[in-house]
Fold these 3 entries.
Entry 1:
Amino acid sequence: MTARRLTLTQLRADTAGAVDIDTALPSPFATWPWPRWSTSRPWAVGVAGDVPTVYGTTETESAAAAAAVQLYISWLAGSVVLDDLAKRRLDHLALIPVLAGRDLACRCALDVPCHGDALLVLASGVSPLVLLEDLREVAA
Ligand SMILES: [Zn+2]
């Protein structure tokens, strides 16, 4: 069976233990404090922190989520460098193989772009650079 992304509600409802990994906070696979979107309008995409770094804004939550996922993949691929999180990035990359073949759950709705979708692809053996290139081709 192919690994899939689920909601946290689906994860909690799974009493058979078939669903494996929670990628939302406080999991090491959660995106925070990596690029994310806020609840402000327009939606801000950036890095949380004492002084947030805003990479851009979008009009819709879904567009912000897509931009946040792209920033997340860019960070993993090394094309967006966050000096404070360099070690965390390496630790994160080292953990990705344990996700192979497992269902991933996140707080995101299933119809919203999510870093869990990227993690499913990365866990299948695709490199962050290849995934980033694929995203850029789709957007072009
Ligand atoms: Zn998510």
Entry 2:
Amino acid sequence: MRRVTTVRYESLAVTPVVTRISYLHDYMYQLVVSLASMIEISDLSHIYSGKTKALDKLSFSVERGEVVGLLGPNGAGKSTAVKLITGILHPTSGSIKVAGFEVAENLAEVRKRIGFMPQETSLYQDLTAHEALEYHADLYGVPKDEVSERVANMLDLAGLTHRKNDRIKTYSGGMKRRLALVRTILHDSELLILDEMSLGVDVHSRNLIWNQVRRMREEGLTVLFCTNYMDEAEALADRVIVIDNGKLVAEGTPDELKQEYVGNYLIEVLLEGLDPENDASWLGGQLGMKTEKLSKPLDGGPRTAWIKSQAGHADLPLVIEKLTELGLKVKQAALREPSLGDVFLAITGSKLRD
Ligand SMILES: Nc1ncnc2c1ncn2[C@@H]1O[C@H](COP(=O)(O)OP(=O)(O)O)[C@@H](O)[C@H]1O
Ligand SMILES: [Mg+2]
């Protein structure tokens, strides 16, 4: 009798506990996945063919729902970084997690979450847009009964419905980029990685692409995009990560970076009468205001100085007065709010393509 009671006790209580533990395991697993940063990379280094060091101990993270711009000049390592995140390349050292999954160990879990638009558009030129999207849907396991509606939606978003039955090789650069962009959201991706989304496209296509990215953000998708266009980062990014020579050089919202590196305003003056030996720090010292840069035209013509200002309108006449007192001729003077281009200039001392 006692034995039977024990068995009944076990069968009633223990089995449900095991079931509950397995539910709890699933729940915890989902919780861990949903709490993890969307991207977390640490100490990531990549060396090509044992010689070119493209990334050097790069660390950063991207949270869910953020739109982050990875900014840097050509050769900075942006494309290398995103190829490592998508698992196309394997890092020399360091760790990469996507939605909590270590990329090297869980490539399938990572791939199905990512929509990737590579820098070099990789589309089968002999297919039509319609065929290319159907092929992609099949590859990513989009349920058969949803394919035709989703493909039609994507063609519409890309503004390509009227050209859907033409071969891709007949498309303009902008049309190809638009197609590559919508392909990233055809399957149930959570993270979009866009490498130079508007490289070589016309203004019309660029606007269309930017608006799609804004729409993706509203839908709660996470976006990491590489660019060396300052205005693209300014227009789209919630946060910017600046890299140069494979290293992180600055990170923050566009406003934070402007405050940190430039200040409230920039005064831009065109000056005549400067000694060729005079540099930005000399001018800054004379003015008692930090001078970011002083151009040095090869023809020895007027030089442009960029001066940091907190007070803005109140500073402008004072600066002109002081410059005149120094015996310089102010040919033009303008006050403006800093752009990300100015931030880049302040950080690296060189201009990015604007
Ligand atoms: N396949 C490759 N083989 C060798 N070197 C490469 C390769 N791809 C890129 N690099 C080099 O790695 C560095 C970073 O390149 P990349 O990641 O393409 O920079 P970005 O996208 O910022 O322009 C550059 O010096 C580049 O020449
Ligand atoms: Mg690149």
Entry 3:
Amino acid sequence: MITLEDMEGFFRESMELDEYQKRAESFAVYPKQYSTIYPSLGLVGEAGEVAEKVKKWLRDGYIEKEEVAKELGDVLWYLAVLSRDLGYPLSDIARMNLDKLSSRKKRGKLKGSGDNR
Ligand SMILES: [Mg+2]
């Protein structure tokens, strides 16, 4: 059962995500004609930087967690501005994802493949 505290927590977290998105937008300086494509490419690039740092864990035997965290922040920034370019508040993206995962869990479909299972 969803309690009033759950709802308050959800709305508080939504505001934090949307506030982050608004603040992130102030750093977006790419030309308008490249909206959506620019942050999509940036998102993939930064995800690659995360993978690169984690890969070095295999080579060097230790992980620089703070460096990975910084790259995750870059991923978050591109996610926020890409969502903005597509017309979605970041809180909507988070809610839609949790709804999808919750539905899959209820139907025993967390494992497997397919975007719309
Ligand atoms: Mg980076």
